[in-house]
Amino acid sequence: MSPSQKSGFYDGVVAGPEGTWMLKIDSLFKPFPTVIGAPTEEAPKAPRTAFPFGFRKLPPHVILRLLGGAQVSGDERMASLVSVLSSETVVPEEGASYAQGPFVLTRPGKVDLSENQRELDDRLTSEMRRFLRLRYPAYG
């Protein structure tokens, strides 16, 4: 995910074994963002993460350490976060705590798009603006 250089929206890419989708998101900072997307033939070249997406067990003592309880230093919090992200992904079960992620958030311009993907990105931006104007008549 990254902020769009041109539109002010956020761009997202969801890639998996069955395909890749490019997303346009109006905001990451509201409970129910507006998201539109379309499949793309190829995955953009994005920064790779050492941590695969999935659910990881999150024991209560780790939660306290991550939140800074009990006078935990920043280094200890970071070590706890890395240990959670490095742990194996699991299938969640009822009654336990889990962390889900990670998402890779990049700075604008850090994802290389092909010409076809740039055209798709422009169409998604146009459609997002059209949708927001229909939904909110006062929208720019």
What are the SSEs and their pairings?
Layout (H helix, E strand, L loop, with lengths): L1 E2 L6 E7 L2 E7 L9 E6 L13 E4 L2 H8 L6 H13 L11 E4 L13 H21 L5
Key traits:
140 residues, alpha+beta, 2 domains, four-stranded antiparallel β-sheet, two-stranded antiparallel ribbon, 3 helices, 6 strands, 30% helix, 21% strand, elongated
Overview of this protein structure:
This protein is of the alpha+beta class. The protein folds into two domains: 2-47 and 105-135, no CATH class; 54-101, no CATH class. 30% of the residues lie in helices and 21% in strands. The chain has helices spanning 60-67, 74-86, 115-135, and strands at 2-3, 10-16, 19-25, 35-40, 54-57, 98-101. The protein has a four-stranded antiparallel beta sheet with strand order 1-2-3-4, covered by helices on one side. It has a two-stranded antiparallel ribbon with strand order 5-6. The mean pLDDT is 80.
